[in-house]
């Protein structure tokens, strides 16, 4: 471990651990973004109705979001390298299942298996930063990881479109499997075993608090499923509200469990730490606003209302994604130098400006104005991801960095999942009503007024995130340690 610590101290970007994690983060995002463009082809090839084809994405999202916290907790007690390698094996097995899937059901199952393995990547990548890098170096490292995420999101649609056009949709999963195999070799060679001394401690399994972890995972999964069901069938549908009730019961059970267990899944004090909660809330709300508002609504606007092809839509969206990839490391350095709060304040203001510009002027206008609005919003989003993670890391000790960042990443990905469903519901409701746009600055036609309102709701989410900046404070909080 000293070898890695010394490398990190000298030059964090030269650390082989970071190189492995950057490639892993890029692969996990690329895997999902390139599959999005293949859904129409998959639906046609496997004879699935368009309304059901979304489960290719939903199954992955639900398992992925709920798995990050579990992997983080396991990595605190068991071998960091072993946990990461196990995740890659499961990721690869899911990719092979998808590539060979004879039916749509097998494909959805394979996507769930993929997610069960890929969830190890964000949990362990961000958790390892808090363990191996000094506080003044974490911002640039988080920014580099965020840059890999942005690059994966930008190149995924292009690679996916080319692959599907030339070889069919199955080649995407064979390609993912090949990259995962390379990652496994690199991880075996370069990743340190951070818990060598804890691996010999007795009762490790009991200390995991598996019941607490399952309650959290099931509660989060039920919440995502319930919000998705409400988007499709309405909140009054028994499946929607019933699942949401189950979610509330599970999360309440988790809260009781961590207060009574001898070795709780996560220290209860973590949820009383204002620094951690504020950073996690900012991540959730900004992710919901940008992913749900910017990247979910925009393709619908461009294709359904402006009549653009999928390829041209990708060209409109790509500059914003590349902005995230280019700016994230630099903004991460600024959060190291000036602290997360001022950087987050400026970045959230930029994100708000981009979404407000979209709601007022870009909706219903020329595609190039949509691209400009996305670039502005993406610049702000690039300045949120790494400083928010940097702020959360200040509330975590090295002993709970894994589960702490697992919980943080759970907030992060829950924002993306719930944001798309919420803004989709707003869009559908406003389209049914057919009234003029709420935004007084909107000058577009009635056909796109509902999109203006949906983007305006995304602006409200950013305003709530800005209010949470108060909770970050000026002084660094004491790290939270397990009871």
Automatic annotation (TrEMBL):
Keywords (A to Z) from UniProt: Membrane, Transmembrane, Transmembrane helix, Transport
Subcellular location: Membrane
Keyword Membrane attached: yes
Span of domain Major facilitator superfamily (MFS) profile: 17-476
Name of a matching Pfam family: MFS_1
Membrane topology: Multi-pass membrane protein
Matches recorded under InterPro entries: MFS (IPR011701), MFS_dom (IPR020846), MFS_trans_sf (IPR036259)
Annotated protein name in UniProt: MFS transporter
Species classification: Bacteria, Pseudomonadati, Pseudomonadota, Gammaproteobacteria, Salinisphaerales
């Amino acid at each position: 471990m000293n070898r890695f610590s010394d490398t990190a101290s000298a030059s964090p970007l030269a650390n082989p651990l970071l190189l492995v994690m950057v490639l892993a983060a890029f692969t996990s995002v690329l895997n999902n973004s390139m599959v999005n463009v293949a859904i129409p082809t998959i639906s046609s090839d496997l004879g699935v109705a368009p309304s059901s084809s979304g489960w290719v994405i939903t199954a992955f999202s639900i398992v992925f979001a709920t798995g990050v916290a579990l992997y983080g907790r396991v990595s605190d007690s068991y071998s960091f390298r072993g946990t990461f390698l196990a995740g890659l094996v499961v990721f690869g097995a899911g990719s092979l299942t998808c590539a060979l899937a004879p039916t749509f059901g097998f494909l959805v199952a394979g996507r769930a298996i993929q997610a069960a393995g890929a969830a190890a990547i964000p949990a362990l990548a961000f958790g390892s930063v808090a363990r191996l890098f000094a506080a003044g170096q974490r911002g640039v490292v988080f920014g580099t990881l965020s840059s890999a995420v942005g690059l994966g999101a930008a190149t995924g649609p292009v690679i996916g479109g080319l692959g599907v056009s030339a070889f069919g949709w199955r080649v995407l999963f064979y390609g993912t499997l090949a990259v995962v195999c390379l990652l496994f070799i690199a991880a075996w060679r370069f990743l340190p075993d951070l818990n060598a001394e804890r691996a010999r401690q007795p009762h490790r399994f009991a200390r995991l608090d598996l019941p607490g972890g399952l309650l959290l995972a099931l509660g989060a999964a039920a919440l995502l499923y319930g919000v998705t069901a409400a988007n499709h069938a309405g909140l009054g549908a028994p499946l929607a509200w019933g699942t949401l009730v189950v979610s509330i019961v599970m999360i309440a059970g988790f809260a009781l469990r961590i207060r009574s267990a001898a070795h709780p899944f996560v220290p209860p004090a973590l949820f009383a730490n204002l620094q951690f909660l504020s950073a996690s809330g900012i991540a959730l709300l900004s992710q919901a606003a940008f992913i749900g508002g910017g990247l979910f609504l925009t393709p619908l606007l461009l294709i359904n209302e402006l009549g653009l092809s999928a390829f041209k839509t990708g060209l409109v969206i790509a500059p914003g994604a590349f902005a995230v990839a280019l700016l994230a490391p630099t903004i991460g350095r600024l959060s190291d130098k000036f602290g997360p709060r001022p950087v987050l304040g400026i970045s959230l203001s930029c994100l708000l400006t981009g979404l407000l510009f979209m709601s007022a002027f870009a909706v219903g206008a020329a595609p190039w104005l949509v691209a400009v609005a996305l670039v502005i919003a993406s610049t702000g989003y690039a300045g949120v991801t790494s400083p928010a993670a940097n702020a959360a890391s200040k509330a975590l000790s090295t002993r709970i960095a894994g589960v702490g960042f697992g919980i943080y990443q759970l907030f992060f990905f829950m924002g993306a999942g719930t944001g798309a469903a919420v803004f989709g519901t707003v869009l559908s409701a406003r389209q049914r009503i057919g009234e003029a746009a709420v935004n007084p600055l909107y000058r577009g036609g009635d056909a796109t007024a509902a999109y203006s309102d949906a983007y305006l709701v995304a602006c409200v989410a950013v305003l709530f995130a800005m209010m949470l900046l108060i909770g970050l404070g000026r002084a660094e909080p004491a790290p939270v340690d397990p009871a």
